[in-house]
Specification:
about 150 residues; alpha+beta; Pnp Oxidase, Chain A; 7-stranded antiparallel beta sheet; 4 helices; about 30% helix
Length: about 150
């Protein structure tokens, strides 16, 4: 069941438009970033302060039914807003990879597990390696698994 509550669209026009297209077509369209060929997945989170539903297309990094959320923010010095949403509400995440969304729970990975997922992430989207070089912060990685 997708997250319920008031949806607050992204302030970024391209994100709002992509989310709308992805949802309207069940992921048949809007499933790559603009001018890119790599696949994206739609993640919904609960706002850390507002409590509103927020939606973000992130690169598709999947392994054995679990999905990575890489908090790269393009190598910016700060974490993306959704990072704080997951820290506050790790058990309120919806993943949509195609037509059917599902509920998940997110956990931040560290150590060898993070290294393994980071390798998968860079294989799916090589720009992540450049983003890490651009920033002094260690880019966090969360794994989202289905709720039982």
């Amino acid at each position: 069941m997708p997250l319920s509550g008031e949806y607050e669209p992204s302030p970024e026009t391209w994100v709002r438009d992509q989310v709308e297209l992805y949802e309207r077509t069940g992921g048949r369209e809007g499933n790559t970033l603009p001018n890119r060929s790599e696949s994206v997945v739609l993640f919904s989170t609960r706002g850390a302060r507002s409590g509103k539903v927020r939606k973000n297309p992130l690169m598709r990094v999947e392994h054995d039914g679990a999905y990575a959320m890489v908090a790269s923010q393009g190598g910016a010095p700060q974490h993306p807003t959704w990072y704080h949403n997951l820290k506050a509400h790790h058990d309120q995440v919806t993943v949509q990879d195609g037509p059917e969304p599902w509920d998940g729970t997110a956990r931040e990975v560290t150590g060898a597990e993070k290294a393994e997922w980071w390798e998968r992430a860079v294989a799916a989207y090589p720009d992540y390696a450049d983003y890490q070089r651009k920033t002094d912060r260690e880019i966090p990685v969360f794994i989202v698994e289905r709720k039982n």
